Amino acid sequence: MAQIASTTFRMMLERVACALLAYLLLWTDGTAAFVIERKTSSSISPGAVSIRRGIDTSVRLGKNIIDNGDVETSSVEHPCEFAGTIRMGGPFSLEQGDKFFVVGSRQLVAFQLVVDYVNRKRCGVHFEANGQTSNYAIELVTYDDQSSVEWTEAIATSLVQEDDADGGIDIMLGGYSSTLTAPLAAVAQESSRLLLAPGAAATGSVFAGRDKVFGTFPPTGKYLEQAIAGLGGVGAKTIATIWEDASFTRGVCAATPSLAETYGLEMTSAQEVENTPNVTALQAVAEKLKIEAPDVVVTCTYNGGCENWIQAMRNVNWSPKAQVFTVCVGLEGFVSEVGSDAEFMMGVTPWDSSLADIEDSVTGWSAQDFADQFRAETADADVTYHAASAASVMSIAVQALEGAAAESVSVSEEQPLPSHEELASYIASDNFSFKTMYGEISFDENGQSQAPSLLIQYDAQGTVQTVYPNKISSGPILYPMPSWDARDCAQLSPCGQQEDSDSGCDENGQCVCDSSRGLVSIGRGKTAQCIPQEEANLIVPQVKA
Length: 545
Prior knowledge:
By secondary structure, the protein is of the alpha/beta class. It has 17 helices and 21 strands. The strands form 5 sheets. Strands 1, 2, 5, 6, 7, 8, 9 and 10 form an 8-stranded mixed β-sheet that branches.
């Protein structure tokens, strides 16, 4: 089997890890130092790159204020005393050439943010026994899986065969995609290990029949539920779907007919297009839907498909009253491509930083707090739900460890950690939900999140708002959205700026003119304007329209 990481990548990781460690050892502020270790593990699939992140209480620096007001650094007793370490981790896509590196690397940053907070700010995970509190540090252990099913399975098998002295894993963590989580889930269930999966949605291949596997993504079949429920509530009557030929997109759109029936909408058509469809392919669908005129169009596609679909609708000068995408909405790259055409577009997501009134029980972070922390760490403009989901998994792990231990009759001062069975039972309980920066999470009979997906929408200023469910919304559903002509009239024509137009543009994209002053409207969209009646008499009817 080929070695997992290239020599160049290993050297790069080594340099980055050393630089970070050197910096973080200086940045202790009276607390123990971070430990960031990169190694090539021989026990976990020989040659696998492993990255560990934890805390080393042997490095203790403090700050004392001396008489002249200067700060001097001196050794002080560390305020956090750890009785032991809880190891969490699993296979991740760590190399830039890995298929899922972009998402996987963001998940890893999110894990690390919570681990660092728990270890440095919270003094670890707390266990009570015989009136005494024991603090346990968290160590995050990750191994590069090359985005490979075979490597994922091999690493997972090796992890459960190790004992604690060799760095075994107490709680397994999944990476991104149902494809890679499925073999990890099989190994976890077979070995009676708890697995928390922040990046999988497929019920059958990952979760069904596995009582120790839990995921924070909603099931594929429920992604669109809140979108259809919300739009039905504001008066939408008909709906059509378009999906590109891929398993996730097909699965999401496939649930639309039953959801439409549930929420009182009529399906008008369902159309499959090629994988990664171009504008030409989508324009043929747009022509058809222009005649069909559904109130809502759901487009189940990936990034490029969103932009091409908008261009296709532009080309035929038609848009529905509501356009829903499964991805794209909320991503800076999407807005960069389509500009102001992004306004009023809707999307579905398990999470958005605009979520209101949520606070993580472990860190105290709101959705926006997490987004700010993540941006500060990565300088990324986009903070996606993948990262927030990963952060929530770490929070759920801490809450479950402490909660299950408090209810357990088997824990003791010598063995304060609850068993995998106790942890799974606690997480699956119908009587409890987990408050996280990702939302309030509880799990269904398959171990998948029962938290609803959100309907999000760009408002008229281009800001993403959570618009449904109402109880956690940051703004109202804007329905129906303006036509292309109405948008162009408002944004590109002189109509809204000239004094002769006292009411701007109407819903058809024409100027509203003051007839008492002898002004009439001509043109539509970006050509809309008000002119004197005598000038209008010289213009042919086609131009006036």
